[in-house]
Design brief:
Shape: globular
Number of domains: 3
Number of strands: 12
CATH class of the largest domain: Mainly Beta
Strand content: over 45%
CATH architecture of the largest domain: Roll
Order of helices and strands: EEEEEEEEEEHEE
Distance between the termini: 36 Å
CATH topology of the largest domain: SH3 type barrels
């Protein structure tokens, strides 16, 4: 796995940029988002691992492989589906959760959602302990790390997901 937030080149397009996300699929393959500044525009595109040139290698984070293809539930919203991949951004790991079946109104597959791995429960997942003290410690740590003062001012449900609004002090 390549380290995120490092500069690389895409050997397919020749574009240079930084890797911002990595998606680890069920078969172990990895796709990355390369983000580049092109003039006044910032573009991001998905590329396969074999197109990455340069950059440095990093250790793969510990992922709950046993949970792949198993039914999981978001403890915050009740959203349920099968865990089909992992999305890694800096220190955040999300799981792509795909509901089984088709939407009756459109006869199309339901939309998958990316959910913080610590919010999920199901076979193959460890029990993540998310006490208020741990959440506050994480927020304090992020504030110190990014030297920004952020405060969660409101948490409101929005179409079966939780939207967090932050303000900068």
């Amino acid at each position: 796995m390549y380290a995120l937030e490092t500069l690389v080149s895409d050997n397919g397009t020749g574009i240079k940029g930084k890797l911002t996300h990595a998606e680890v699929c069920g078969d172990g393959s990895i796709r990355y988002v390369i983000q580049a500044d092109i003039g006044s525009e910032v573009i991001g595109s998905w590329i396969s691992e074999d197109r990455v040139e340069g950059g440095k290698l990093a250790e793969m984070p510990k992922l709950p492989w046993a949970a792949l293809k198993k039914t999981v539930t978001d403890t915050h919203t009740g959203f349920t589906g099968r865990l089909v991949s992992f999305l890694i951004q800096e220190s955040l790991i999300q799981a792509e959760v795909q509901p089984v079946g088709l939407c009756p109104k459109t006869n199309q597959p339901h939309d998958a959602r990316y959910i913080d791995i610590t919010q999920l429960r199901g076979e193959g997942l460890p029990e993540y302990d998310q006490t208020d003290a741990q959440v506050e410690a994480t927020i304090r740590s992020l504030r110190e790390e990014r030297k920004e003062e952020c405060q969660i001012v409101e948490i409101e449900p929005h179409w079966e997901t939780v939207e967090r609004k932050t303000v900068q002090k």
